[in-house]
TrEMBL record:
Residues 3-315 form the Cobalamin-independent methionine synthase MetE N-terminal domain. This is 5-methyltetrahydropteroyltriglutamate--homocysteine methyltransferase. The gene is metE. Pfam families: Meth_synt_1, Meth_synt_2. Residues 17-51 form a coiled coil. PANTHER family: 5-METHYLTETRAHYDROPTEROYLTRIGLUTAMATE--HOMOCYSTEINE METHYLTRANSFERASE. Pathway: Amino-acid biosynthesis; L-methionine biosynthesis via de novo pathway; L-methionine from L-homocysteine (MetE route): step 1/1. It comes from Myroides odoratimimus CCUG 10230.
């Protein structure tokens, strides 16, 4: 039976590529050394898949930085600002590529990097292609051909993976107004045909063309473009076996279109959308092979063979074995590499997991098991069954009390005691803050020293007491400094936190952490998400110690600082045996207990950060409301255990609110602080048009840059905000946490910000007279 992997992680088992890239950028190694590291990774990946017995092994899934940027370079979609680097500076193609990814500041040049954005609903970021009217393309890099040849040279036949013409265009951004990227189809098509020609000349038999947009809402024009692209390929290369790969969702209303494409194989994601199988089996033409994506490329859980085989058996029964391929649901890029290296996970938890290398084996196991009648006699099947059974019944995972509590949540639990209009005057009375109150988003600079203390503490070079004392000093300094410069609502500074999700995960039950479970986020940046394996609950207070300590040092209000349930969920690997919404509710209850405990410790203002609410939005619009309903409800559950006088803040680091503003309002936070300094108008428009009732702190300066903003700029922004939002609803704050900044610029910026607020107060006093 045929088996396929849609893509394999390329960072290397020990993040070799990350390290080599960074050394190359720092000019510490030569290009040859970097190339050697890259080649070793590719060879290992191919060899591993071949040894396992995968029949359709991907090539061109390697990338030094990002596969979309690779493709832009292949097609010669190089924005004009980089041209001088090639013509005058004589940069190699690789260096040009890195310049596009990272910007170029050398030899008098100061060229900005290309934009980066999230790859569909994953945490991977790709480099956004830039498109211009009348843009010309030309075959510029032969990477895809070279990698195919490279594999062939070591005796491995691969299927090159490329991004479809339509999906590539739709992933890009039109850099001019009134211009439809699909108008570029005609100039791009010849380059595609040329690439495919070169590949077939080398003997390529199968090619994987990724068409992820087939699981999204498409316009008629986009649908036509997709059909016509495959028709042209088919007529130009009648012998080429094309695999159309869809992933991250179901085909739904695009099913008929996809099934009618003149290709050899259609790949569907049965992890994200199992229900689509029935319809597809009913409609699939006799000649089309189906690739069943049953092994989850997005997660870390061991495949449930019994469950996958139900789908596979059904498909084989209807189509015959020759017409079915067993596959990963999407590229394995999104899962960590190898479970074997994990020595700290408990054996019980470890037997529930599978990383990329194990997932390759799962694909092969499933294909073998598919041919067997008496599976019970087969070892891998038995072992898998035992692991699944253990997981279903483990007392590590299942806690009756947690499940009961979730069941017992009432509508009241998800609602503050009184509406905002009643809470607001009570809070104003209790908190006694001036107009234009100033605050920050939570973190202060995590200096090298602070990070070193934590490292030393973890290595045992500092005792818990020593570490705590150092953090106390740092916190005390931050409190004193905030008092000195006249901020109104203080924060403790988050010096004790490594990361806003990890810090909570480490203290909550139901979470565990890997040692080496790295996943590429963008370029050389990798993340190691926490693993939520079981029912989540809080067995002890999480943040009360530090908030109470900070509050004990000052008469001013110190704001408690928590990460919200949706963000904790979104940035973790989440268990797949219960709905995500249920895990989210469990986390919400844990945070709720923390909020109540903070209130009991006399913390009167509590912020619950939700920077990830928006990125959790489903790919299809039709699914938005149901996601937003449970996400907003989770936030409300976390926030609603307190009395009316306690002021709940939330924070989000983005500014596109137009399409979800009513849900943001439904969160009913007393104060929301948002990213705003980059695109003020749009944002405030949304809030004004909606008549957003609660208080807002539109960030008055961009913390992502070391640049210190002038008072004039900030004044201008707040005055503009005043045109949209009533004065008594406005707060003054930066647009995100200050963790990544240095103290030097932080001090200057915040002093200026406080001055601005003072000036505004004076002005409004004068006006009142
Ligand atoms: N409270 C967090 C901080 O200040 C918020 C971070 C975020 O929004 N990403 O660091
Ligand atoms: Zn933020």
């Amino acid at each position: 039976m045929q088996t396929q992997v849609l893509g394999y992680p390329r960072i290397g088992g020990q993040r070799e590529l990350k390290k080599a890239n960074e050394q190359y950028w720092a000019e510490k190694i030569e290009r040859e050394e970097l190339e050697q590291v890259a080649q070793a990774i590719r060879h290992q990946n191919w060899q591993l898949q071949k040894t396992a017995g995968i029949t359709l092994i991907p090539s061109n899934d390697f990338s030094f930085y990002d596969q979309v940027l690779d493709w832009s370079l292949t097609l010669g979609a190089i924005p004009k600002r980089y041209q001088p680097l090639r013509t005058n500076e004589g940069l190699s193609l690789l260096d040009l590529y890195f310049a596009m990814a990272r910007g170029y500041q050398k030899g008098g040049f100061d060229i900005t990097a290309m934009e980066m954005t999230k790859w569909f609903d994953t945490n991977y970021h790709y480099i956004v292609p830039e498109f211009y009217k009348g843009q010309q393309f030309e075959l510029t890099s032969l990477k895809v051909v070279e990698e195919y040849k490279e594999a062939k040279k070591i005796g491995i036949e691969t299927k090159p993976v490329i991004l479809s013409l339509v999906s590539y265009l739709l992933l890009g951004k039109a850099k001019e107004q009134d211009f439809n990227v699909l108008s570029l189809v005609d100039s791009l098509l010849p380059v595609y045909l040329e690439i495919i020609k070169r590949l077939t000349d080398e003997g390529v038999q199968y090619i994987q063309i990724d068409e992820p947009f087939l699981v999204l809402d498409l316009t008629e024009e986009q649908k036509k473009a997709i059909t016509s692209f495959y028709n042209i390929i088919q007529s130009s290369f009648p012998d080429l076996k094309v695999i159309v790969a869809t992933y991250f969702g179901g085909l739904e209303d695009n099913a008929s279109l996809a099934l009618a494409l003149p290709v050899e194989v259609l790949h569907i994601d049965l992890v994200r959308n199992e229900e689509q199988l029935e319809e597809i089996l009913n409609k699939v033409p006799a000649s089309l092979k189906l690739s069943l994506g049953v092994v989850d490329g997005r997660n870390i859980w061991k495949n449930d063979y019994e469950q996958s085989l139900t789908l596979i058996d059904k498909a084989i029964e209807r189509r015959g074995k020759e017409k079915i391929i067993i596959a990963t649901s999407c590229s394995l890029l999104h899962s960590p590499i190898d479970l074997e290296g994990e020595v700290k996970l408990t054996t019980e938890i470890k037997q529930w997991l599978a990383f990329a290398k194990q997932k390759v084996q799962e694909v092969v196991d499933l294909a073998k098991l598919a041919s067997v009648v008496d599976r019970e006699g087969i070892l891998v099947y038995q072992e898998n069954k035992i692991a699944q059974h253990d997981k279903r019944t483990s007392t590590l995972i299942h806690h009756e009390a947690v499940k009961r509590r979730v069941q017992g949540i009432t509508e009241q639990d998800a609602q503050r005691k009184a509406p905002f209009s009643t809470r607001q005057p009570l809070q104003h009375k209790a908190l006694d803050l001036p107009l234009f109150p100033t605050t920050t988003i939570g973190s202060f600079p995590q200096t090298k020293e602070v990070r070193q203390w934590r490292a030393k503490f973890k290595k045992g070079e500092l005792t818990a007491q020593q570490y705590e004392d150092l953090l106390k000093q740092e916190t005390a300094r931050a409190i004193q400094w905030q008092e000195e410069i006249g901020l109104d609502v203080l924060v403790h500074g988050e010096f004790e936190r490594n990361d806003m999700v990890e810090y909570f995960g480490e203290q909550l039950e139901g979470f565990t952490f890997t040692q080496n479970g790295w996943v590429q986020s963008y370029g050389s940046r990798c993340v190691k998400p926490p693993v939520i394996y079981g029912d989540v609950y809080r067995s002890k207070p999480l943040t009360v110690f530090w908030s109470a300590y900070a509050q004990s040092l000052t008469k001013q209000k110190v704001k408690g600082m928590l990460t919200g349930p949706v963000t904790i969920l979104q940035w973790s690997f989440v268990r797949n045996d219960i709905p995500r919404s249920e895990t989210c509710t469990q986390i919400a209850l844990a945070i709720r207990d923390e909020v109540v405990d903070l209130e009991s410790a006399n913390i009167e203002i509590i912020q619950i950060d939700e920077p990830a609410i928006r990125e959790g939005l489903p790919l299809r619009k039709a699914a938005w409301d149901s996601y937003l309903d449970w996400a907003v409800r989770a936030f409300r559950i976390s926030a609603s255990g307190v009395k009316n006088e306690t002021q709940i803040h939330t924070h989000m680091c983005y500014s596109e609110f137009n399409d979800i503003i009513q849900h943001i309002a439904a969160m009913d936070a007393d104060v929301i602080t948002i990213e705003c300094s980059r695109s003020q108008m749009d944002l405030l428009d949304a809030f004004a048009a909606f008549k957003y009732p609660n208080e807002i702190g539109p960030g008055v300066y961009d913390i992502h840059s070391p640049r210190v903003p002038t008072e004039e700029e900030m004044l201008y922004l707040i005055k503009k905000a005043e045109n949209y939002i009533p004065t008594k609803q406005l707060w003054v704050n930066p647009d995100c946490g200050l963790k990544t900044r240095h103290w030097e610029e932080t001090e200057k910026a915040l002093i200026a910000m406080v001055n601005v607020s003072k000036k505004l107060r004076e002005e409004s006093l004068v006006e009142a007279i």
